[in-house]
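[Meeting: bench + compute handoff]

Bench side (C.D.) handed over the final construct sequence. Compute side (W.E.) agreed to return the predicted structure before the next meeting so the bench team could plan truncations. Sequence as handed over:
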Amino acid sequence: MATLPASDTPESPENMPFVAPCRMLDLSAPLRWLRLGWGDMIRAPRLSLTYGVALMALSLLIASLSWRYGTIALYIGLATGFVFIGPVLAVGLYSISRQLGRGQVPVMGYCLQEGWHHIRELLVLGVVLLVVMLVWARAAATVHVFFPVESNPSLEQMLPFLGIGSVIGAVFTAIVFSASAFSLPMIMDRKVDAVTAVVTSVNAVLRNKQPMFLWASLIGLSVLLGFATACVGFAVLLPLIGHATWHAYQETIDASIWPQNEAADG
């Protein structure tokens, strides 16, 4: 029986669309994702909290170094940068939720295996997010030049810096959120390139503006709560958001046309 050329096979990249279709979400969708994410934490508490404690330690290190050796501007810039690279750091949590969804008992070795299996795509997205973070850091430094503050500034002195810095930060955060909301879980789940995953993510966010704005607000609130608790809250909040992100992808993106990754099948 004759076989089709590689370019004509159903799984050939040339035959794949440039963007995966998305489903339309209702406003309560983010709350469902959080509920499902909490369920994953209950089913795999040891792995989830181990991951959460590791991320908490990293956030504490960033906060302590910037606070001890830098300024409030550096602290805000690094804290925001931590938010930018957070989606890449959460790939292990996606793997835990994925294993649970397949009826498996999650193990750390499998999480590491999946992370290594997708290292190329993760590095591509990681570099992109790092570049955005560096541009944001430069923008924050520029704002600090125009609005200098003392080592112990008053609230009145900080207001101009915080106001303009927040606007600039919101723009960069919106870009990163749109690009990473669904792209990393899609890369973990399907044989797809980073560009297609990012375009799919941006398309889904733009088509579901209200529920995704609510989801972004809930993530931002979680980050604020984490820093408000001296980063201790991140031990629970970051795993919760990571697991919920996986369920957000599952509900929103229809990637069935792309084959599943071999790491998931093996």
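W.E. noted at the follow-up: The CA atoms of residues 140 and 165 lie 6 Å apart. C.D. will use this when planning the next construct.
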